[in-house]
Specification:
Phosphoenolpyruvate Carboxykinase, domain 3, 2 domains, 4-stranded antiparallel sheet, disordered N terminus, Poly(ADP-ribose)pol_cat_dom, NAD+ poly-ADP-ribosyltransferase activity, PARP catalytic domain-containing protein
């Protein structure tokens, strides 16, 4: 298990692990694999449809993207990294995550204005990626699109990520480090919030601000928070505006539940009932600045 150390400022992924000389070399290399935005917009629809032309393959091939150099040593799932490359598009992956954090923050700003401090990646147990690959293969046998979405999860994070994360084998380890290192555990459902609107499952939000409402301040730093950025394979969604607290699995023949905005919810959420449907990809640490 390893964690990318906190940089002095948000920077490129390869600079977090590489020497300055290596970083310069890879920065130079990145120009040959970057895409002008107008070109990428033309390719985006085709890549999502599985186009195999050279340009489209290059756009979503994590092995030729310098911003994925470190991630190739962290995540063993090619399916996951391809989804991440499509998500990143023409942006560096960590910059895209930060941008997505801000653009998906939808709650009123009277609660504070978030400012991202850093993005962390922890090496998960290999079985987390293996089981995700197997589940994706299972979905692709019955669906054309496994419906993978980038979603947020709020949880308790106590450690500082400066030198090393919590020891997941310790009884004092925080929930965030346990999830990042060992994946989600369905038995922990409801441990932070006993109300389960859609039953015993793992809950995610498309809005970073909703995930923030389930996060707790880190240690003695009352204005510092961390939420998890995840890739979730939703498969076929059962969409509802009604509470379904009795669920232990999604209604047949669906693979997940989508809670839509309505008389019960002000902000939508997604629920899965299998831990192999998700990979915790990154932890975003941010400071809440008051007005």
């Amino acid at each position: 298990m390893s964690l990318l150390k906190r940089p002095s400022k948000l920077t490129n992924l390869w600079e977090l692990e590489s020497s300055d000389e290596e970083s310069t070399m890879q920065d130079d290399a990145s120009s040959s694999h970057s895409f002008p935005r107008e070109e990428y917009e033309k390719l985006k629809d085709k890549t999502r449809q599985g186009c195999l032309c050279d340009d489209c393959e290059r756009a979503i091939d994590p092995t030729v993207r310098p911003d994925f150099t470190a991630l190739l040593n962290i995540f063993t799932s090619e399916k996951l990294l391809r989804q991440a490359a499509i998500f990143a598009g023409t942006r560096k992956i960590n910059e895209k995550i930060v941008d997505h954090f801000h653009t998906s923050w939808k709650h009123p700003m009277h609660m504070g204005v978030p400012n991202v401090e850093f993005v962390s990646f922890m090496m998960s147990d290999k079985k987390v990626c293996y089981r995700f690959d197997e589940y994706m293969s299972e979905l692709l046998l019955i669906l054309d699109d496994p419906h993978v979405k980038p979603l947020w999860h709020g949880t308790t994070v106590k450690c500082k990520f400066d030198d090393k994360p919590c020891d997941p084998t310790s009884t004092d380890s925080c929930a965030g480090c346990n999830i990042l290192s060992k994946g989600f555990d369905i038995s922990k459902s409801g441990s932070a919030n006993p109300f389960k609107r859609f039953g015993t499952g793992i809950y995610f939000a498309p809005n970073s601000s909703k995930a923030h409402s389930y996060a707790t301040p880190r240690g003695e730093m009352e204005d510092l928070y961390t939420i998890l950025f995840c890739f979730v394979a939703l498969g076929r969604c059962h969409t509802t505006i009604d509470d379904m607290p009795y669920l232990t699995e999604p209604p047949y023949p669906c693979h997940s539940v989508h809670g839509r905005i309505g008389h019960r919810l002000n902000y939508e959420e997604y629920v899965i009932y299998r831990p192999d449907a998700v990979v915790p990809f990154a932890a975003v640490t941010y400071r809440m600045n008051k007005w």
